[in-house]
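Example is below:
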Amino acid sequence: MIKLNRELEQLGQGMALPWTVFDAKGRSLLRKGMMIDTPERLALLSEQAVYRGGEGEQATRSAKDRSGIPFFVIGEWMGRLHTMLHAIAARRLDFNIVHFDELCVAIQMMCAEDADAALAAIHLDHDGKYAVRHLIHSALLVELVTNRMGKSPDERQRLIAATLTANVGMLDLQERLIKQGEISASQRDEINRHPEEGVTLLRLAGVQDELWLELVLQHHERLDGSGYPRGLRGDEIMEDARIIAIADIYHAMISERMHRVGMLPTDALRQVLLNQGN
């Protein structure tokens, strides 16, 4: 990383950061594009030893140095998950479910070691393809919430697995949707079918856990019956599927898109709470 000194002198209130700013331990303080809109934020940069990423950063920092930084770890997870999901979607025979289980356990370990860092990553990490980042961040939310609810590690691991594979039936479409406005009728039909398509793909990949598959099938059902693919209502929907649905909705709200900025966490939480019942 490159220490900021003279570059800071060129920044002033009302300017947008041209790079993401880190502290001496590699933790993100302010992300690229954020406005220096208050004297306090400007003071944060001026008073601390802050750095920005450099072209040779990955070459000069060892894997050991980076292994404990959630943003770096999640970046690695995204690459692994992208490979595994596309292997499932392509119906390839080289998919190994053991590697998938290892990723689920790694997510649990991060949340156990530093829940605050995991929560910060969900709200501040905007790198990588949205389709994969969304699944990992939603899985982190699910783990944090269900651990607080007192669910067992095995129960939580199944929930994480279902969250990570929830959209395997529409991977390519999801990336296209991020970059467009209106959804066509054919795309809407594909969206409505993706839970069932996902279950089919997971069965072909060797997933035999019926609860995992049922959670994938139900993650877009809504309490008022407006969801899909089966239009289930109320107690017909499993509690665990409702948890995945809320994590999915919340993360979508706080995420930036081509046509809108992400909502503030407080506003997203307020909207979720105001929509209780559906």
User: Anything to note?
Assistant: Confidence is low (pLDDT under 50) at residues 54-65.
